[in-house]
Structures
1.
Amino acid sequence: MIKDIDGISVNYEVKGSGEYVFILHGWGANISVYNSVANLLSQKFTVVSFDFPGFGGTEEPPQVWSVSDYAEFTVKFISSFNVKNVILFGHSFGGRVIIKMASMQDLPFSISKIIFADSAGVMPVRSKKQNFRTRIYKIGKFFLSLYPVRKLFPQALEALRKKFSSADYANASPLMRGVLVKTVNEDLTSLLKNIKCQTLLIWGVNDTATPISDAEVFEREISSAGADVGLCKIQNAGHYSFLDQPYVFQNILKSFLKIGD
């Protein structure tokens, strides 16, 4: 299905009935990746999965967006369903958006529960090796951006980007590369204390994109504000813990949301 929000055609799906759950996907993903999660949740809830602007079947935003821009857009999308109370499920980048939403004043709906799955939002501590690679990249970028060099070697700068950048960056369009740089460099740790509702953290122990130490920061910061928060660590699972260990992941969700009771 397609819904127009601020001139952007949003690709989305709705399953089930009952209280509304909105699934916010990770960077580079789309609604199809979360079918197993949506199918489980739809046993008790109305589940809305949608592609963020720039992903899946939804067109790119009109300019380089920040996490706040995505949060404001998501609020408008959710509000279009005329709901007063929602549950939010956020994986990776989707978790960033939820953190921002939970910090917004005067939301047109209330958030009763949040589920963070391998969520982003905590700024990683960069190693000396990573800092060195960044330095080399910046030097190379400066040299290859000089007009005479660009004229002689027009593909050299793009080759450098592919060599030194992440797969997410290399696979993104020019505009979405700008979005990626803008969003991943924002540390949202200080906003976690604004989360007041019951919160579940589900994390793959082997997650290297958003390591288990990030989950512990989430747990500490959210609980410090008095919210009810629990952390479930899944063994032998990485950044996509719901795909790596679907049986364990789904049983955790069933327990938390009382599905099947």
2.
Amino acid sequence: MATSIQVQNLNKTFGSKQVLFNMELDVPKGAMVALIGASGSGKSTLLRHLAGLVSADRQSGSTIHALGKTVQANGHLSRDVRRVRSEIGYIFQ
């Protein structure tokens, strides 16, 4: 089955605190998903990565794909990330 969101090996560190560690996520097309977790567990950080608003740790080898397009790879945002963002709805909390 095709995926609408695919995250591989996502790592994010703020200073000395690692908030995402080797995260993997596959969301099939048409699926409804809820992110549930304690405050500070990385939910908003994950969403910001999916929308291409922040990049992962560079040495992590991570990739993020949304709607069949690359959002980022190896800690670098895709060259056409603005086009990808135009197809993703994101409401700040």
3.
Amino acid sequence: MKSNTLKENKDFRRLYYRGKSEASPCLVTYVMKSRRSETRIGITSGKKIGGAVQRNRARRVIRAAFSEVEGRIIGSFDIVFVARTKTTEVKMQKVLSEMEKQLKSLGVIQ
């Protein structure tokens, strides 16, 4: 199942306030059940993370990790991943294992 992206600021804010969240040193995940037919994801990386190169790498690593997990999602969700300063320093495998852990505890994947 291909996932779409969240682009609207109001969608991100809705997840921050009403979504369930899990955090780790390299990733924060916000999840909310969606009434749509597809899963939508958003990835943010703030100025704290570093320059544009570091922020883009963080987003790229998160996107790559999500593409590994994507097929195991049950149902449709809105998901926001927030990169942290650690995200730029770790390999994709580390982000992937954190992401799996968080999505399991939030009930998104088996």
